[in-house]
Specification:
Number of strands: 7
Number of helices: 6
Shape: globular
Largest sheet: 5 strands, parallel
Strand content: 15-25%
Distance between the termini: 8 Å
Order of helices and strands: EHEHEHEHEEHEH
Structural class: alpha/beta
Radius of gyration: 17 Å
């Protein structure tokens, strides 16, 4: 399978080494890694078009949905997940902490969440989804979410599509 690796990992200071390891992992499982850094584009519009091209070539997407610059996944990654889903591609998301979103938010806020009209709210008084999901429902419902790193997501993908390994 050709597998697109979505996530904010392109921003890591060790991105080249990280993706070399990721490519080796996928190759060892009989897959081809499609990595955003594979293209030579340097402009915003060029990178955007090239990444969409890689997703179009993919048979599946593995998405790092860990919090990035806050408590939510990288917005670019969320877009790529939506694009892949719109193309009908299977997407497996992975998180270091797959506990329910509401539990993690309460912990970050130092205790129980306040409630307004019986609904949990965050420190800004905004409603918090309470479906027991580790992420916003728009990511957690269509994508199986595994706890762990890329290897765990790859294992879940291989389990879902054993003939492709």
């Amino acid at each position: 399978m050709k597998i697109y690796l979505a996530g904010p990992d392109v921003f890591r200071p060790d991105a080249l080494a990280h993706f070399a390891d990721a490519r080796a992992l996928l190759t060892a499982h009989g897959h081809q890694a499609l990595i955003p850094l594979d293209n030579e584009e340097t402009t915003a519009s060029g990178i955007y078009a090239a990444n969409l091209g890689l997703i179009r070539q993919a048979n599946a997407v593995l998405a790092n949905l860990n919090p990035f610059r806050g408590s939510e996944p990288d917005s670019g990654t969320a877009f790529e997940v939506g694009f892949a889903l719109a193309l009908g591609l299977p997407v497996i998301g992975y998180l270091d902490d797959a506990r329910p979103q509401i539990v993690k938010l309460a912990e970050r806020q130092g205790g129980e969440l306040a409630r307004h009209n019986g609904r949990p709210v965050d420190a800004d008084g905004l409603g918090v989804e309470d479906f027991g999901l580790p992420l916003n429902l728009m990511l957690a419902v269509p994508c199986p979410i595994v706890e762990g790193r890329l290897a765990a997501a790859l294992q879940a993908l291989d389990a879902r599509f054993p003939a492709a390994t």
